[in-house]
Amino acid sequence: MANRIEVSSTVPDTRSNVRKQWLESRFPIKITEVVLIDVYTIDKEIPVAKLTQFARVLTSPVTQNFQIVSSATKKIPWDKKFTWATEYGFLPGVTDNIAHTTTEMLQDGLRLTFENDEGVYSSQLLFISGNVSSKQIQSIAESLINPLIQRVSIKSYQQYKKDRGMDIVVPKVVLRPASHSERSEESSKLDPSASSQDDKEKGFSVKEVNLSVSDEELIKIGKGGIVNDNGTRRGPLALDLIYMKTIQDYFKKLGRSPTDIELESLAQTWSEHCKHTILADPIDEIKDGLYKTYIKGATEKIRKAKGAKDFCVSVFTDNSGAIEFDDKWLITHKVETHNSPSALDPFGGAITGIIGVNRDAIGFGLGAKPVANTYGFCFADPADEKPLYRDKKRQQKMLSPRRIMEGVIAGVNSGGNCSGIPTPQGFLAFDQRYKGKPLVFVGTVGLIPRTVNGKPSYKKKAEPNDYIVMIGGKVGLDGIHGATFSSVALDSSSPVSAVQIGDPITQKKFSDGLVKEARDLGLYNSITDNGAGGLSCSVAEMARESGGCLVALEKVPLKYPGLDPWQIWTSESQERMTLAVPKTKWERFEKVMKKHGVDAWVIGEFTKSCRCVVSYEKKTVMDIAMEFLHDGLPKKQQKTVYKTVKNKEPQIAVSKDLTVAALAMLSRLNIASYDFIPTQFDHTVQGTNALMPLQGRGRVNADATVFRPVYGSQKAVLLSQGYAPWYSDIDTYHMAAASLDTAVCNAVTAGASLEKIAVLDNFCWCSSTDELRLGELKRAAKACYDVATFYQTPFISGKDSMFNDFSGFDQGGKPVKISVPPTLLISSLAVLPDVTKAVSLDAKMPGDLVYVLGETHDELGGSEYFAMHKGIGNSVPQVNLDKNKKLYEQYQKAVEQNLIASGKSIHRGGLFVALIKTAMGGRMGLAVSLKNLKTDCKRNDFALFSESLGRIVVTIAPSNKESFKKIMNGVALSLLGTVTESGFVNIAGLKDETIISTTIMGALEAYKKTFAGW
Q1: How many structural domains is the chain composed of?
Q2: What is the pLDDT of residue 204?
Q3: In a domain, 191, yes or no
Q4: Under a CB-based contact definition with an 8 Å cutoff, are residues 471 and 577 in contact?
Q5: Which structural domain, as residue segments, surrounds residue 928?
Q6: Which of 71, 193, 363, 908 is the most exposed place for a label (fewest CB within 10 A)?
């Protein structure tokens, strides 16, 4: 018998008011009232007295009321008149975190146990009052859900009364008769060798896949997946013909066909997402591939040159990269992308991304504590409402850019905030080519002792006979084909099963259990996260350490019965880790996990058999040599073509007064304040911040943030990034060089020493089998090598995403292909010896001198100013390595001597944006002139908006002028004017004529209005 507990507010409800405002901002309707009700549907027979007792636990008696509705005694729970009722919840099988927590509360508070067919489900009910038509409520309902993962029901007030309330919906997953044991989980935990006798008679599906077929059929299998019984295909394996023929030959030598689980496992392991074949395979004359030659090669050269000054500890060998923090601690960092899933389900894709990269920290070495998150979002214009469709019949509608943006931000919000991890650093970028597939970058910084139990913390090794232990959440259908799905373009065949929703609360519990206790007790030998490919990748990767593995899939806990072995093995259900636990330490390890409220299951053993063997109900369903599984994929010789691009130069009329243009620049999507993001991302939760994401009295978005991960230490960690995808329209070499230079310049400006900066790379490319796109990629990778080796900034980690393309249809049914601009994110990480030396961007005192360091050239190709005039141009900014390096080194010396009052690097939007952000940050005026600016620009607007690299706007106290000039000797130095307390910004041009005059409040209004109300 199912019961509903409906919890409503007895006082004015902020959530209801926010929802009302949101609906009115999206729809041209007048809504008089919105009432939000939290609904908990409990599919279990519970005595009314106990149910009432639990309802009181869910309710605040001061501000809330509850109503219990059962399927047997249904009555109208809400007697106040309204116009429409809409209720929305998750579809069957979608992770429901609220329901999960509610279940734990029931189990703990009422000592209840739930059988496999019983459960708790959450939903929300909205009562909407106003002049709203049936067509409008349908649109409203559609705006509240993502149909891939959510359901919605609508009732008018009259229908609601007639039905005596809303329907009691129990969204159970029903697959087929259970093949998976409904055994006692407790007995299997206590005795890892136990298996249920009851399930031996139950059937399960393991297919043999016939590969003795034509090349044409092999291509179909590799692209569309294994054929189901009904003739449909399971979903992309992302295996090219050369891979399929290699697999065909392997099993031909074995004299048998592969099982479906073997083929699926090879697809996950060999996917571009996991093996990064495009960067790894030979390309033109570069036999070792771009990664080994230009990324890893750069780091190896830098580390060798640094010698005793090398601060890298672990690079390119683990889930994250690690550098020295001090003599007791290491700092780790990893940045991931979650683009494809975020295009289908923005919230689920983003929350899965952020808590997934949290696990990269937890899975580094023997386990690092996540101490900071980072983010970067590349979207299309949120005002663009023109629909796109994945299919020709226009039934699979893509979410709008606004829905994607809202969902992604909410997902990272939930993942970080619920995990208790601060999110201080990030960026927002816009281009219409991100409409087909957004780019969602998420990163995590970790903290780990240098040694654990007297051994280096970054070293781990699964030993033969160690138990294979899975901890965290159970396994469902969510996330299947996630790795292969992310290795191809987004189209109508993209599987919705690749969508997942993570559970940060469960992950927080096992994170604490591991890094605060089990790690330091030495209860496990190795650990990694269950990310792409699920168990198929995590177990098999760890098995390389021991030499093999033996897995019993019937011991893997399921969310619901009916999964086939291949689904259990490849599912990417979230919040799971895999560990190697010595048998003698299993009971103690399990006790520690149980103390933290974390489930742990033994699912097999690591071996030294040199084989990956998987069984189900004692039947072997997979038996592949470790060497073939990991190293059997063939190398593909890649060829490139490169063509020089010639764009039309925009024709922009010369204007004497640039005030209107300047304020318009401040309101552009790529320049405007996105303070609504850091104000909802908790960046203070661990109490470590030194430089905040919003700086100065004007609360301006900062390019770099600083935090102290070790309490009592003066040392700090600095985070920043660089990106310039717009320059790819001219030359990807200069795009990549600009990205790395900007990441370095941002870090140096905020106080980092060039000698202590490490970087991470995230290539997000498109159509990466196209020779032209590969040529652009090759140039970008070469730029990374050139700039990194010159600045001596080693790469410590990275991740690429190679197929950020959308193939679909527009609203008229016309075929559309949208590819992102080739994009490279460079993240910078540095350790500051003294946190008090960190430099913020805001002007501090009236009378302070305003300088520009570096030269300004006529370099507006790909600039925001040209984009504002619908142009691209050709004069792309180019990095002058010699001049920039000297500037960065000299500037750092000035920082060390406390000469810098404020510093702001110059990048998107040029000199004007850096100047005005400095002024807005301090809420102070400026009186400056370009007459002393070291520039070859002949036009005022070009001088103001050029995006030449290696430049910094600084303010210094007049008393420090001579010391500052002495230190900056040999560096291009332009004294522009002073900070004022007048509240006005007055900028004179190259001939000292007034070209901009505005108030600082007017500038702030322009800067903040674009995303006001978000």
Answers
A1: 3
A2: 66
A3: no
A4: yes
A5: 666-672+839-1014
A6: 193
* The two three-digit tokens of residue 60, written as one number: 């605040």
The answer to whether residues 372 and 425 touch, using CB atoms and an 8 Å cutoff, is: yes
Round to the nearest angstrom and report the end-to-end CA distance of the chain.
42
Check whether residue 262 and residue 150 sit in a common domain: no
Which of 504, 527, 532 is CA-nearest to residue 514? Answer: 527
Query: Do 241 and 97 fall within a single domain?
Result: no
HEC profile of 560-591: CCCCCHHHHHHCCCCCEEEEEECHHHHHHHHH
DSSP conformation class of 233 = B
Question: Of 606, 632, 658, which marks where a domain is finished?
Answer: 632
Looking only at the bridges linking them, the beta strands covering 952-956 and 902-905 are: antiparallel
Instruction: Say if residue 138 is in the same domain as residue 247.
Output: no
In a domain, 715, yes or no: no
- DSSP class of residue 649 equals P
Cα separation, 243 vs 23, in Å, equals: 50
pLDDT averaged over 10-residue windows placed end to end, the chain, 1014 residues: 88 90 86 93 86 88 88 67 93 84 82 80 94 92 84 93 89 59 33 34 73 92 87 84 94 94 91 84 96 97 97 95 97 94 89 93 96 97 94 89 94 92 97 96 97 95 97 82 50 50 83 94 94 88 95 92 89 88 97 93 97 94 95 94 94 95 98 96 92 97 97 96 98 98 98 97 94 97 98 96 92 94 98 97 98 98 97 98 98 98 98 98 97 97 98 98 96 97 96 97 97 89
Q: Domain of 114: which CATH number?
A: 3.30.1280.10
Indicate the pTM of the whole model.
0.89
Can you say how many angstroms the Cα of residue 842 is from the centroid of all Cα atoms in its chain?
29
- Residue 526 inside a domain? The answer is yes
Q: How far apart are CA 116 and CA 179, in angstroms?
A: 13
Q: Domain check: are 904 and 988 in the same one?
A: yes
Residue 255 gets the label, from left (phi > 0), alpha (psi -120 to 50) or beta, of left
**Amino acid sitting at position 348:** G
Number of helical (H) and strand (E) elements in the chain, helices listed first: 31, 39
In a shared domain, residues 18 and 109: yes
Distance CA 646, CA 130 (A): 56
Task: Indicate if 114 and 261 belong to the same structural domain.
Answer: no
Q: Are residues 861 and 1009 in the same domain?
A: yes
Q: What are the structure tokens assigned to 752, written together?
A: 């980092």
Amino acid at 493: S
Residue 913: both structure tokens together = 């944006």
CB-CB contact of 334 with 321 (8 Å): yes
The pLDDT value recorded for residue 74 is 60
Question: What is the rounded CA–CA span in Å between residue 875 and residue 862?
Answer: 8
Residue 327 · residue 449 · CB < 8 Å: no
Q: How far apart are CA 965 and CA 435, in angstroms?
A: 47
Could you say which DSSP state residue 814 is in?
Answer: -
Amino acid in the structure at residue 66: F
Q: Any bridge partners for residue 550, and if so which?
A: 605, 613
87 in Cβ contact with 128 (< 8 Å):
no
Query: What CATH number is attached to the domain comprising 596?
Result: 3.90.650.10
**Residues paired with 442 in a beta bridge:** 336, 375
Number of other residues whose CB lies within 10 A of the CB of residue 44: 18
Cα dihedral 490→491→497→501 (10° resolution): 40
Whether the Cβ atoms of residue 683 and residue 719 lie closer than 8 Å to each other: no
> Which sign, positive or negative, has the C-alpha torsion 673, 675, 676, 681?
positive
User: What local confidence, expressed as pLDDT, does residue 227 receive?
Assistant: 87
Q: Got the DSSP string for 374-421?
A: EEEEEE--TT----EESSTTS-SBPPPHHHHHHHHHHHHHHHHHHHT-
In 784-901, at which residue ranges do the beta strands (DSSP E only) sit?
795-798, 805-810, 815-819, 823-832, 849-853
Give Cβ neighbours of residue 272 (< 8 Å, ≥ 6 apart): 238, 278, 487, 802, 803
Are 12 and 120 contained in the same domain?
yes
